[in-house]
């Protein structure tokens, strides 16, 4: 059984272009599908699900118009994720908070606060996340707290990562045609299974999640033994 599922939500723009939709509409479909997939994950008894919603590079390399649309959807997150908030999902964040506008930070912090007592599933949103960015932030924090480099080991390193309190991923799903990991949470994924699907993120549904679970159930994980 999958305990922690990570999803790289890709090929949203291609999905929208095929339907002649403006970028804000694919961002809307992208956010709304999170709610549907979480419902399916609960049916599969998945305890944690992490969505890579926005990378550090997205903010830098996307057009100003598209970044504004992304920020708009983040600011409307309580609307699109209202059922998660009301019923069962605890929402948590891994991110570089300083990269987002103040309004976005306020909305996301409210999501966390208002769902902290929920218990059916933990939904982790990776916003303005990037592995290289995480390492730089880790080094800065390590130095600022006055740690001795000679005392650094795997345990102390892990405690500074954004994912320190979560179990490692059992499966990492990437939607769309691309077969790559894009530096997504590399340190915690050494034993993770990968599942690549041609379905674009807005097309990823209950049936496809069932395929992920079935594939994982049939896999043999030796953990280097």
Describe this structure in words.
The protein has one domain (about 5-130, about 170-220): Decaprenyl diphosphate synthase-like (Undecaprenyl pyrophosphate synthetase, 3-Layer(aba) Sandwich). Helix 1 (about 10-20) packs across helix 2 (about 25-45), helix 2 packs across helix 4 and helix 4 (about 65-75) runs parallel beside helix 7. It is of the alpha/beta class and about 220 residues long. Strand 3 (about 90-95), helix 7 and strand 4 form a beta-alpha-beta unit. Strands 3-4-2-1-5-6 form a six-stranded parallel sheet, with helices on both faces. The chain has ten helices and six strands. Helices cover about 45% and strands about 15% of the residues. It has helices spanning about 10-20, 25-45, 55-60, 65-75, 75-80, 80-90, 100-115, 130-145, 155-160, 205-220; strands spanning about 5-10, 50-55, 90-95, 120-130, 170-175, 195. About 35% of the residues are buried. The mean pLDDT is about 85.
Through-space gap between termini:
20 Å
The fraction of residues assigned to DSSP E strands is 15-25%
Enumerate the spans where pLDDT stays under 50 for 5 or more consecutive residues: none
Given helix and strand content, the structural type is alpha/beta
CATH classification, class level = Alpha Beta
> How would you state the average pLDDT, rounded?
83
